[in-house]
Design brief:
The complex is a heterodimer of chains A (about 300) and B (about 290). With about 300 residues, chain A is an alpha/beta fold. In chain A, about 30% of the residues lie in helices and about 15% in strands. Chain B starts with a helix and ends with a strand.
Chain lengths: ~300, ~290
């Protein structure tokens, strides 16, 4: 579990900074090293600057115009591949009129272990804050989903692999408590490598903390829908992400407890294609449905109608 | 996550003939994995009377990596759940080196619900390198099994005492670790990730496990200081491996004392106390 499996994704963009998560396999040392190498000499006039207008699909290789990709909520129009998107893009996709109130925006990690590896953890935190404009790897908010007040916590994968430390644990727990206080349903959208190694046991106990809070949400007869996106592994899957009244996932998302690399090292074999993908989990009874990004809002609204009754 | 192969290497040459530094975190890791260290079965046979094992999750299989059964602790009827690594090669294979699969966690959950139904306290003994990272475990929902245990343990209306007696390997340990009291033996370690895996990620070399062990603050004194555990249980002499009987006696005393402290507390208060404990645990953030 944990952050051992910072996902080898990498969203290719031909040009400058993009708001899609771009965690390269060499993250965190040099998340864009492959890219900088090309532009390092700076004065190469033979290169055409495309200013991030085009994206290449990770799955089918199609070159997609940025405007088209945005219009399709970052889903490839040729093969349906779901690009990683940021936490606020998630909220935008769910809340009516693209408006919401962000909650608990001021929480920051205190670096409980004073963790230092090749670089102090507090420096990694500062770098992640600067990169994402967020305080930590989750954004929680209250807003309306088709006219119904809903609390949504959306994880940010580009913030240290979406890993869960004390701040993520606290914000999601407060999100659960807010839902109880407002008598509102809860959605948590996961995108995480798991517990945050740099906060040690403090990260691990967040799993128990959130799971405990969810028992109270259930006690209040309020629905909780877990939306698992690529990737959701480790201590996040092994706590709140698997505890929804409904667990739904985006197509092709990597979802598991142990990361694929850890499993391969243990069994010393290559894993079969499609292993630990959303479709695999549905087959094995761990998810209620695989729901494409474009249909998720309608899906949760329909579910809330069933759970809470239709909006009057 | 320690792989089987790596784990057996460590167990074959635990100290490499060198005397471990008593203060070093790595020394504690080696002690926690010491081949002569008492395991859960050894504690069970010494601490409890008439342990009666119950098996199977009623869903798929019985997982010997987690043992469960009822027993009497100095006159008290308790449900015992524990992770067993196995000592010789054959036993290690049978117990899967103490790495539970979903059916192990679901057996533990069944045992805990049974204890709750009949109003018996639960004693959970943690000793695992981690939940098993394998294809079959993933297929049967390792993550769901662990998550469900956290949820079920949060709701229990009977006393739950958890003790890390050796290695507390991440979510695989926490899945039986949500207690009213969480104890750790003096030379136990409890961590979000094994030092080897941590080193492999941040230093790109598992050989830096000693540095990682230090950085992870995984020793009993560190965890007590962080508030992650409530009590550190003394071990005899240079460690539990030097005197199993005395180690079991000291642990039995600690568990008995913690159970006695919860005598007469009603179920709702037990649940509430456990909730508040974990609600405030790990509050390492500031509001800016």
């Amino acid at each position: 579990m944990d952050v051992a499996e910072w996902y080898h994704g990498g969203v290719y963009c031909c040009g400058a900074e993009t708001r899609i998560g771009f965690v390269h396999k060499d993250f965190p040392e040099s998340s864009m090293a492959w890219f900088r190498k090309d532009s390092g000499d700076g004065n190469d006039q033979s290169k055409v600057r495309t200013e991030g207008l085009w994206f290449k699909c990770d799955s089918c290789g199609a070159i997609i115009w940025k405007k088209d990709l945005e219009a399709a909520a970052y889903v490839c129009n040729r093969c349906g591949f779901h690009f990683k998107i940021g936490a606020r893009d998630r909220l935008r996709a769910f809340f009516d009129n693209e408006t919401w109130e962000e909650l608990d925006t001021s929480l920051r990690s205190t670096d409980p272990l004073q963790f230092v590896d090749q670089k102090p953890y507090h420096e990694r935190l500062e770098a992640a804050m600067a990169k994402t404009g967020l305080q930590d790897a989750v954004v929680s908010a209250e807003g309306q989903v088709l006219g119904r007040t809903v609390i949504i916590c959306a994880m940010e994968y580009s913030f240290i692999g979406g890993s869960m430390g004390a701040v993520v644990g606290e914000k999601i727990t407060r999100g659960v408590e807010r839902a109880i206080g407002k008598n509102a349903p809860l959605i948590v959208i996961s995108a995480s490598g798991g517990a945050r190694m740099m906060e040690g046991m403090v990260s691990l106990v967040q799993m128990a903390k959130i799971a405990s809070a969810l028992t109270r949400l259930a006690g209040a007869k309020l629905p909780y829908i877990s939306v698992l996106t690529d990737p959701t592994t480790g201590g996040v899957t092994a706590s709140f992400a698997m505890l929804g009244d409904l667990n739904i996932a985006e197509p092709g998302a990597l979802i598991g407890f142990a990361g694929p690399r850890v499993i391969e090292q243990t069994i010393r074999q290559k894993l079969p294609k499609g292993f630990q993908r959303s479709e695999f989990l549905v087959e094995h009874g761990m998810l209620d449905a695989v729901v494409p990004r474009a249909d998720q809002k309608a899906f949760v609204a329909r579910a809330f109608d069933f759970f809470c009754g239709p909006i009057q | 996550m320690v792989t089987q192969a790596r784990m057996s290497e460590q167990e074959q040459q635990p100290n490499d003939g060198m005397e471990p530094e008593p203060q070093g975190a790595w020394a504690r890791v080696l002690l926690a994995r010491h081949p002569e260290r008492p395991h859960v079965v050894d504690y069970i046979s010494r601490m409890f009377e008439s342990f009666t094992e119950i098996r199977g999750d009623r869903l798929f299989a019985d997982d010997p990596a987690i043992m469960a059964g009822f027993a009497s602790l100095r006159g008290r009827q308790v449900m015992v759940i524990g992770q067993e690594k196995g000592r010789d090669t054959k036993a290690r294979m049978r117990h899967n080196f103490g790495m539970p699969k979903p059916e192990g966690y679901r057996k533990a959950m069944r045992a805990m619900r049974m204890a709750e139904k009949f109003g018996r306290p639960i004693v959970a003994l943690i000793d695992t390198p981690g939940a098993y990272p394998g294809i079959d475990a993933e297929e049967r929902g390792q993550a769901e099994a662990i998550a469900r245990n956290l949820y079920v343990m949060a709701e229990l209306t009977v006393p739950v005492i958890c003790v890390c007696v050796g290695e507390g390997g991440s979510g695989g340990a926490l899945a039986i670790g949500v207690g009213n009291a969480v104890l750790i033996l003096e030379n136990g370690v409890y961590s979000v990730i094994s030092p080897e895996s941590c080193a492999a990620i941040v230093w790109r070399d598992a050989a830096n496990a000693e540095l990682a062990a230090e950085a992870l603050k995984l020793t009993a004194p560190d965890l007590l200081e962080l508030g992650m555990v409530d009590e550190v249980v003394d071990e005899p002499g240079d460690g539990a491996h030097t005197d199993w009987d005395e180690a079991a006696r000291l642990l039995g005393d600690a568990i008995e004392r913690n159970l006695a402290a919860l005598d007469g507390v009603d179920g709702e208060s037990l649940r509430e106390a456990r909730y508040q404990k974990f609600r405030s645990l790990g509050s390492f953030f500031t509001e800016i």
